[in-house]
């Protein structure tokens, strides 16, 4: 999933490591907390696979970004001058998508199997729905709805069977889980309905051709 997230963000624009990390947290932090420990090994792997390439900013670009790289964020970065994303005399290392990387991203966003319905994967796929084929979006949304409905029914069954067997706090834990799944099912229903309306409105014109003879 981190591979999909990185390729998706670099599909929009080249970024250096610090920018990429910020965007991962800004766009996907609700679904997953990414760390330096997982990001940079992924970047190395993608580069070795030829899916991303490394270029270098002009040194003048560093001054404009100086304010963004101070404080806690700067302390969190690797301190080695040769480490990934660190400043050098040549400027800052920037990562961009290769043609192979674009193909790999298209392949990943076209997936719609059960793995895309999981809690972690679904959020990341959803973040790149604007680049996902409509039929794939529908399969993912419908699959996610089935997954959450199954979870909802399981919670309902648990609550009905164990009302007298669990304490108040455990029962409340199950209840908040049930409410969460019910809200998500309603939200998914709205998304699916919106996709269906968009599909109908963008479909071919089914009206009969104009056969009125010309004057």
Could you give a quick summary of the protein structure above?
The protein has nine helices and four strands; from the N terminus they run H-E-H-H-E-H-H-E-E-H-H-H-H. It has 215 residues and is α+β, with helices and mostly antiparallel strands.
Jot down its keywords.
disordered C terminus; single chain; 215 residues; alpha+beta; 9 helices; WH_DNA-bd_sf; Arc Repressor Mutant, subunit A; WH-like_DNA-bd_sf; 4 strands
Fold blueprint:
Elements: H1 2-12, E1 15-16, H2 17-28, H3 36-48, E2 52-56, H4 60-64, H5 71-76, E3 87-88, E4 91-97, H6 99-109, H7 119-127, H8 134-162, H9 168-201
Helix pairs in contact: 1-2, 1-6, 8-9
CATH fold title of the largest domain: Arc Repressor Mutant, subunit A
Q: For the report, how would you describe the main beta sheet?
A: 4 strands, antiparallel
Strand portion: 5-15%
Question: Secondary-structure element sequence?
Answer: HEHHEHHEEHHHH
How far apart the termini lie comes to 63 Å
Helicity level: 55-70%
CATH homologous group name of the largest domain: Winged helix-like DNA-binding domain superfamily/Winged helix DNA-binding domain
Strand elements, count: 4
CATH architecture of the largest domain: Orthogonal Bundle
- CA-atom Rg in angstroms: 24 Å
Task: Tell me the number of structural domains.
Answer: 2
CATH domain class name of the largest domain? Mainly Alpha
**Spans of at least 5 consecutive residues with low confidence:** 60-66, 70-82, 205-209, 211-215
Given the structure, what is the number of helices? 9
Average pLDDT for all residues = 80
Shape: globular
SS-based structural class? alpha+beta
InterPro entries: Metal_resp_DNA-bind_regulator (IPR052509), Tscrpt_reg_PadR_N (IPR005149), WH-like_DNA-bd_sf (IPR036388), WH_DNA-bd_sf (IPR036390)
Organism: Actinomycetospora chlora
Protein name: PadR family transcriptional regulator
Pfam families: PadR
């Amino acid at each position: 999933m981190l591979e999909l997230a990185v390729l998706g963000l670099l599909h929009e624009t080249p970024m250096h490591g610090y920018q990429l990390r910020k965007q991962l947290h800004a766009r996907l932090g609700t679904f997953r907390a990414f760390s330096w420990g997982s990001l940079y090994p992924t970047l190395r792997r993608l580069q070795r696979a030829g899916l991303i390439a490394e270029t270098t900013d002009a040194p003048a670009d560093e001054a404009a970004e100086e304010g963004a790289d101070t404080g806690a964020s700067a302390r969190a970065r690797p301190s080695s001058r040769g480490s990934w994303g660190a400043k050098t005399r040549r400027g800052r290392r920037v990562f961009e998508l290769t043609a192979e990387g674009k193909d790999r991203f298209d392949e990943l966003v076209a997936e719609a199997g059960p793995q895309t319905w999981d809690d972690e994967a679904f959020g990341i796929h959803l973040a790149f729905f604007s680049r996902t084929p409509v039929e794939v979006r529908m399969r993912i949304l419908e699959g996610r709805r089935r997954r959450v409905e199954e979870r909802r029914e399981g919670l309902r069954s648990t609550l009905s069977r164990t009302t007298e067997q669990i304490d108040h706090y455990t029962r409340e834990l199950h209840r908040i889980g049930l409410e969460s799944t019910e809200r998500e099912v309603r939200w998914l229903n709205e998304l699916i309905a919106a996709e269906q309306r968009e599909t109908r409105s963008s479909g071919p014109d089914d009206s009969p051709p104009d056969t009125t003879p010309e004057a």
